[in-house]
Amino acid sequence: MSRLVAIIMLCAAVAHADTAAVSNEAEPDPSDQIVGVSLGVAVGGRVTPGGLRISGHYHYQLSDHDWFDGRATFIFGGNSPECFRDRMDDVVCDHGLADGQAGELSANIRRFFGSGQYMPFVRAGLGVMLVRFGPDDVTGIAFPLHAGVGLRVLLTPAIALNAEAELEVGVGAFNRGLGAEPQVGSSIAAGAEFRL
Amino acid sequence: MRMRLASLFALALVACQDSDVSREVGARCSDNSECDERCLAPGADWPGGFCTVHCEVDADCPVETACIEEEGGVCAFICFADPGCAFLGNGYSCKEVDARGGATKRTVCRGL
Lengths: 196, 112
Prior knowledge:
The structure holds 2 protein chains of 2 kinds. Chain A is built from 1 helix and 10 strands. By secondary structure, chain A is mainly beta. Chain A has an 8-stranded antiparallel beta barrel with strand order 1-2-3-6-7-8-9-10. The relative contact order of chain A is 0.19. Chain B has one helix at residues 2-16, and strands at residues 38-40, 50-52, 65-68, 74-77, 93-98, 105-110. Chain B is of the alpha+beta class. In chain B, 29% of the residues are buried. Helix content of chain B is 13%, strand content 23%. Chain B has 1 helix and 6 strands. At the A-B interface, β4 of A face α1 of B.
């Protein structure tokens, strides 16, 4: 009798171990890192660059809902001279909504709401941006604050699409006697993300 | 909190303010590269230099400017008295000149 009980317990233990192994293979722990790329349009004006906006992202999971979001962003806008000397002999720049070029590195926090296939999120961060308006020979360094909202759509466990709109406010320091100038812009973008 | 709001308001104001002059008409200049089209060189006629555009009739000129018979037809700011030219700085006053074509007169801001 005791031998029968021992055999039954052994079989149960083996069966449990098999189930656990199968379960582990079917649902591997998701990675806490994501890379992505997005394409969009940035709107600027005066000495805030605007135009085609391309970003590369790296995301690292900090908690259940919060992710670090590091970005390298490039803006490619028009190239027409828009600066002049006013009657006080001060340089004034009046660039359009989509003028200038820029490269930016930014550190952001992205917070997701809810879970599932469709995940809305908000994002906030700070960047350092090199800005250039070539025809006017105007160059500057800007420190924009970013605030955005977006939606992430999971296509597969490893691939997602996202769309996002953001506002940007900051200050920049420029040459040609322009000095400190406000940075006010916005953008919309869409892209893809890949879990590592 | 009030100071922060005031600072934000000031920032927005600076971001939105416009100049009276532009690369098209009125900016200071020393050569054509500083203007959209052409620079009337600094001198007694146009102190500090004056960006302008070619015209044949008033309709060719931006708002608040008129086409005058100088340099083959250029746009200049319309005025009614000398204080109306103060925004252009020292040396500018309100003068009566020939309109483009010479048939009528216009009062515009210019030097001398």
